[in-house]
Amino acid sequence: MTRLIYVEIQNFDKHKYEELLSLFSEKTRNEVLKLKKWESGYIRLLSKMLLLKGMQCFNMVDFSFDLLQYTVYGRPFFNDSIDFNISHTNNCAVCIISDSLKVGVDVEEIRNIDLDDFSESFDAGEWRSLTESPAPIHTFFNYWTRKEAIIKADGRGMNMPLSSVNVQHDLVKVEDNLWYLKEVKLPSPNNIVHIATNRLLGDNELEIIRLADY
């Protein structure tokens, strides 16, 4: 089974943030309290909460953040039976977790940016498609979340040049590996989410869960 758990925040509540902060270890609290804005800490804590909920869905009652290990590229993992990935933006956090697939996820809030700042992240075909699009900003974030989902599933992250991963199609070959892309629609049209998996997901193989308490 593969599950995607998400939360979208409409109104930031500092009381809820403080309640959530109290649930985590001193190490995590100290990391979060170093952030300039408590809202950023809130999203980061919610990302961790999503992973905790996801592990509980798989009956991983012995899961602890202290048990997380990291690959040479800094990708966190717990054990060989579960793969997971987390992403968050200004007002949204998502976590994908699977006991059968390699997975990656990325969420971005669609917002105005200077596209030229990111030209080196796309190959010639992608850049032409993006700049000729009737909605170039939306196309940018569509491509960007697809690229990020793949490089996170691959495990090398930003150690892979984004321009080397062409995401104009839903099936993407990266070296000897195939990755399948899927968009996940959230209630807010301003947040765009893509997941990458190393096998095509059937219609009933992805369970989407909304965390409503926060």
Notes on the structure:
The protein has 214 residues and is of the alpha+beta class. It is built from five helices and ten strands, in the order E-H-H-H-E-E-E-E-E-H-H-E-E-E-E. The strands form three sheets. The protein has a four-stranded mixed sheet, with helices on one face. Strands 6-9-8-7 form a four-stranded antiparallel sheet, with helices on one face. Strand 8 and strand 9 form a beta hairpin.
Describe the structure using short key phrases.
29% helix, Ribosomal Protein L22, Chain A, alpha+beta, 214 residues, four-stranded mixed sheet
Topology (elements, then pairings):
Layout: E1 2-8, H1 14-21, H2 26-33, H3 38-57, E2 69-70, E3 76-77, E4 83-88, E5 92-98, E6 103-109, H4 124-131, H5 136-154, E7 171-174, E8 177-184, E9 191-197, E10 206-210
Parallel strand pairs: 1-10
Antiparallel strand pairs: 1-5, 2-3, 4-5, 6-9, 7-8, 8-9
Helix pairs in contact: 1-3, 4-5
Question: How many domains comprise the coordinates?
Answer: 1
CATH architecture: Alpha-Beta Complex
Strand percent estimate: 25-35%
Structural class: alpha+beta
pLDDT under 50 segments (min length 5)?
A: none
Number of helices: 5
Mean pLDDT: 93
Give the neighbour order of strands across the main sheet. Answer: 4-5-1-10
Broad shape: globular
Under CATH, the topology can be stated as Ribosomal Protein L22, Chain A
Helix content: 25-40%
Alpha-carbon Rg, integer: 17 Å
